[in-house]
Structures
1.
Amino acid sequence: GAGVSQSPSNKVTEKGKDVELRCDPISGHTALYWYRQRLGQGLEFLIYFQGNSAPDKSGLPSDRFSAERTGESVSTLTIQRTQQEDSAVYLCASSYPTPDYGYTFGSGTRLTVV
Amino acid sequence: QKEVEQNSGPLSVPEGAIASLNCTYSDRVSQSFFWYRQYSGKSPELIMSIYSNGDKEDGRFTAQLNKASQYVSLLIRDSQPSDSATYLCAPDMGQGGKLIFGQGTELSVKP
């Protein structure tokens, strides 16, 4: 597509429920990144994919967080048993194999856990 | 020590002035450096990249890099109210492709 597409744009969920966040990268971008941004805070790295492998999962905060990617296409970030501290904007970005030309970010998913 | 440090601001400048945003980073292996702009409630957008020591100009924006000092800056000339945003510094720390973002500097340009 023309840009990075994320869905849903907003998600309100009850504490303890599971949620799935979706990211569709720019066509031809083999690298895909997930970041989290809490209100008023900076971007916190979660995980990145090169194709469908995840060389770096170091930022996933706990085993409640997981992500997968199908080929060089859509990625899904899953949060199980959501907690209130999971409330944040989840940003997805994509790039060519290395970020030499920077990332392109999607518009994000705003997750609110109540 | 944080990997990427920026003054959080807010930095307030009058319209038409030069805004100077600074960033220091901890890892000497960084080769690529990026500046992103983030408007309130929006996602970051890439505005400048720089790879070599010295200055790189693009319109009203100039990025400056000094690898020996592990310092990168962004100058915005003729600042406009529409430049009011948070500016994020992001070196490629050579960690397999991920960018590490600073906390950002909030810029406010007053008419």
Note: The radius of gyration of chain A is 13 Å.
2.
Amino acid sequence: KAGVTQTPRYLIKTRGQQVTLSCSPISGHRSVSWYQQTPGQGLQFLFEYFSETQRNKGNFPGRFSGRQFSNSRSEMNVSTLELGDSALYLCASNSVGGNQETQYFGPGTRLLVL
Amino acid sequence: DAKTTQPNSMESNEEEPVHLPCNHSTISGTDYIHWYRQLPSQGPEYVIHGLTSNVNNRMASLAIAEDRKSSTLILHRATLRDAAVYYCILRDVTQGGSEKLVFGKGTKLTVNP
């Protein structure tokens, strides 16, 4: 099975712009979670989607949003980018969630905001 | 969210066992203890998890204290490829069946040749 894929792998944006990141989960997985990793705050949970519905959300401002499509692929969007949004954005998938299942992480998208 | 405490860093020599400790004094009765690791320039990967009993798999062993307030991840023979940040996580099953991983700072393991 192919692993979790994330595109693009690297991205440079400027303050005020918006960005969309994409995540393709492992085939058959219906749950997709997003995390932000920064040197200062570490890995922080953004949100989780299951069957196209957001099931859980972390403590991030409304500028961070996401969605999931019927094929389980997910996108996250950050609007009005700030310098502090520079981070590694990680996507993780598992088959159904809620059952202590293993989360499988992608390699991440590294976003730099100038 | 239940919290875990881990040493910031540990060092080991190749081919020697490594014991990575984790304290979780506020663990609840239904919290599972999970370990993930993150190799340089990669996303985290699952290592092992358990509830009450000690667990073994091909990567590592997990020893859980009888009162469940602490646990230890054991790498039986460290290799250079085991150099990573190791995270001890209590799985938080929120209402609706959703789960999220709450990562702490983790332990950075250095393996010396």
Note: DSSP finds no helices and eleven strands in chain A.
3.
Amino acid sequence: GAVVSQHPSWVICKSGTSVKIECRSLDFQATTMFWYRQFPKQSLMLMATSNEGSKATYEQGVEKDKFLINHASLTLSTLTVTSAHPEDSSFYICSARVGGKNTEAFFGQGTRLTVV
Amino acid sequence: AQTVTQSQPEMSVQEAETVTLSCTYDTSESDYYLFWYKQPPSRQMILVIRQEAYKQQNATENRFSVNFQKAAKSFSLKISDSQLGDAAMYFCAYRTSDSGYALNFGKGTSLLVTP
């Protein structure tokens, strides 16, 4: 399958600072990227969907000013957690797919964010 | 609301035995895809098997097969000849064009494989 690389794998940041997470499709052009959040021992919850060159569509309850998503190219999407707080500590996972209803979405390795 | 229900938080199976993980879903869409994903301790999501709703034949991938009952909105996963490496969280998911092709996940089933 295709490869999606997410970086960093883990990050610790101080409360009040911002942190950026990158999601790259290494061997295909991703027209759509998805960002999920996973709390310990829980399921993946969709945060937002981003299409290349467009503004991201956020799920209800997700603060778009706090979780800034940029999808400026067909191979890169970034999630920036602004003014992070301890409650933002979580596991963030991206996935990417090419357009077309029968195509797969491939997942990055995830990023464990700890805000102290 | 569109939902996925996995009623078994934990399951246990002995090595070489067969186990079935259950999943039910609710959608008003007629065109959708169903998936089972495995998440080992590394937390990398791995696609196990997928099923197109318009296909009547149950999907099979080596030791993994599904029982897709469209009318009942049921999509169970059978793992045959279980191996120690099958131990993981298993998530049932579906996607529709209405959801922008994002995956809607169940809460997961933790599978323990004992020697």
Note: The interface with chain A takes residues 31, 42-45, 47, 50, 52, 91, 95, 97, 100-108 of chain B (CB under 8 Å).
